[in-house]
Specification:
The complex is a heterodimer of chains A (67) and B (303).
Chain A lengths: L4 H27 L4 H26 L6
Helix pairs in contact in A: 1-2
Chain B lengths: L1 H35 L7 E5 L2 E4 H20 L9 H21 L1 H24 L9 E6 L2 E7 L8 H33 L8 H22 L1 H24 L5 H6 L1 H31 L11
Antiparallel strand pairs in B: 1-2, 3-4
Helix pairs in contact in B: 2-3, 2-4, 3-4, 4-9, 5-7, 5-9, 7-9
The chains are: A mainly alpha (67), B mainly alpha (303).
Chain lengths: 67, 303
């Protein structure tokens, strides 16, 4: 098994971040169901930024890119 | 004592059996994966006068053709009370328009709707078309020791190619600059990036100018990385999805495992396909809104 420890760490951090955003977003929808669309937009944007880190980590870790 | 012996021996026997089974499965899976690996680069099918035609480009054109044909067919016989294909298309476009209007405002959506709607529909349908059986599995190949192996598939998901996603985000970047200059003018554009915001006077004002100059430099760097992150995000998601489906299909080397195991992941990929299309559209829309917003909009006096 091979891999990069920093890609793993980035994935861990991003997963925690996405989980936190999702938890808070669903909590917010629970509190105010009328604002569901606005919350969806905000949370998707935040999730996209959080998960973008992993892709940077993956592509920067791959020395032979593009393979 | 006899009971203890029995337990130990059974544990050892079962452990041995599992190890053996695991090794066997691993070896076979390894061999299968080595043959089925999805290449990071799209495969070049033809080369017309130095211009390469890849399998991703083929799927891109198919998706574009499907979308254009559907739009033409649906709007051929327009009726006041829509039905069938026209109804579906109107629902889609009106829904998207309303959604974008809520996000970026009614002024901007009039000007930029064509771009965001196109991007959304194109990414969505190319993601979903890439999930069809036959994409990545039909093509040229050779007969090896494990039977026939496809080495040059004819089709490949359009967004599983970094060229496609990068060209979309670069196109957006050009549009973004044009819209930003139209909305702010060249001076206003620079002011938007570097000029201090808020009302301060005297020495504090000098400090604020320095601070916002530094902030502007940071902002330029972050703006310059937007096309990169946009294209990496879409490519990474779709490419990883295709890879995952292939590894899941090869997990258990029997026809039942090949058929059953990828099914839940297909549903996940359907979800990823629409979410990534939504993310690309939303991010580009919000980036445009951020630069086209005027400072005057904050005060109610100008409305």
């Amino acid at each position: 098994m091979t891999g990069n420890i920093h890609v793993g760490l980035a994935a861990l951090g991003a997963a925690i971040g996405v989980g936190l955003i999702g938890a808070k977003a669903s909590e917010a929808v629970g509190r105010n169901p009328g604002a569901a669309t606005k919350i969806l937009v905000q949370s998707i944007l935040a999730i996209a930024f959080a998960e973008g880190i992993v892709f940077f980590a993956i592509f920067l870790a791959t020395k032979a890119w593009p393979a | 004592m006899r009971l203890f012996n029995l337990i130990v021996s059974s544990v050892l026997a079962s452990a041995g059996a599992t190890t053996f089974a695991a090794e066997g499965a691993h070896a076979e899976a390894g061999a299968a994966v080595a043959h089925h690996e999805l290449t990071a680069k799209a495969v070049e099918l033809w080369n017309i006068g130095g211009f390469p035609i890849t399998n991703s480009m083929l799927v891109t054109w198919i998706v574009a053709l499907v979308l254009i044909t559907f739009a033409q067919v649906a709007t051929r016989k327009m009726t006041l009370v829509p039905s069938g294909a026209q109804n579906f298309l109107e629902w889609l476009v009106e829904g998207l328009y309303g959604f974008l209007e809520g996000v970026i405002g009614s002024e901007l959506v009039k000007k930029t709707f064509w771009f965001f709607a196109t991007i959304f529909l194109f990414i969505l349908w190319s993601n979903w078309l890439g999930l069809l059986p036959g994409i990545g599995t039909v093509g040229y190949g050779h007969t090896g020791e494990h039977g026939f192996q496809v080495s040059e598939p004819w089709f490949r998901g359009a967004n599983a190619d970094l060229n496609m996603t990068l060209s979309m985000s670069v196109t957006f970047f050009v549009c973004w600059i044009v819209w930003a200059l139209q909305a702010n003018g060249p001076i206003g554009f620079l002011k938007h990036l570097f000029a201090p915001k808020g009302e301060t006077t005297g020495l504090l004002k000098m400090l604020m100018i320095l601070v916002f100059l530094a902030v502007g430099v940071l902002e330029v760097v972050s703006i310059a990385f937007r096309p990169v992150s946009l294209s990496f995000r879409l490519f990474g998601n779709i490419f990883a999805g295709e890879n995952m489906l292939e590894s899941m299909a090869n997990l258990v080397p029997s026809w039942l495992g090949r058929v059953l195991i990828p099914i839940p992941f297909y549903f996940m990929e359907l979800l990823v396909g629409i979410v990534q299309a939504l993310v690309f559209m939303l991010l580009t829309a919000v980036f445009t809104m951020l630069i086209c917003q005027h400072d005057e909009d904050h005060g109610p006096a100008h409305h």
